[in-house]
Amino acid sequence: MTKILAVIPAYNEAPRIAPVIEGILAHLPEVLVVDDASTDDTAEEAADAGALVLNLPPPNHGKGHALRQGFRYALAEGYDVVVTLDADGQHQPELIPAFLQKLAAGADLAYGDRLTDLGKMPAARIFSNRVTTRLVGFLAGARIEDSQCGMRAIRRWVLEAAVTSADRFAAESEQLVRAARAGAKLAPVTIPTLYLKDSDSKMRVVADTLRFVGVWFRLLGELW
Q: Buried b / exposed e across 46-60, counting CB within 10 Å, b at 16+?
């Protein structure tokens, strides 16, 4: 039987995280919330909603760091597949079966593609996503539709082979590059773009794009 764990990196998402966990538990038996030094009640809300909680000590290190700790936990505990979602409700848990179906059909890493349904994505984010996705595809040597979406289903061997070092949002792009370079079959899953009124995005377009550029050049030097 395939062991599947949902991993949610979280930072100050106390008002939003419980419905996300409850939605996931309708499809998967276990959820791990990696609380990255939140200063609110994120950890308590997550535990009350039925999640396992991994509390990281301060200071906050960023999404990539939190994901890496979640992946380490999953590997140590013998999970075969990890499903990742954001904590703020932008990813719909009811789409989890579509990601798992991609794996059942032969994919090694299924990732969300929001760029076919842009919805209310801000113009700056659209530009950033399209540019970074092209750059990631170049490094990966593979066609990639959306390099920044955090909703994914990932096989165990990919987690072992595609270990990232970036601490913040660029880690998700780095994972795609390393996975493709390791021979993983990548498959997009079309998902809607959701921006919730009471959600304060942790991504800062200019700063995180600059961090991405730094990671891109690091990978370019490493791979070529």
A: bbebebbbbebeeeb
Domain enclosing residue 159, as ranges? 4-223
What does the block give as tokens for 209? 């794009």
Block means of pLDDT (10 residues each) for the chain, length 224 residues? Answer: 97 98 98 98 98 98 97 98 97 98 98 79 71 90 94 98 89 95 98 68 63 77 77
Query: What 3-state DSSP class applies to 73?
Result: helix
pTM of the entire predicted model: 0.89
Q: How many residues in total does the chain contain?
A: 224
Strands (E), 49-130: 52-56, 81-84, 109-113
Write the CATH number for 50.
3.90.550.10
Residue 49 carries which side chain, given as an amino acid letter?
A
Domain total of the chain: 1
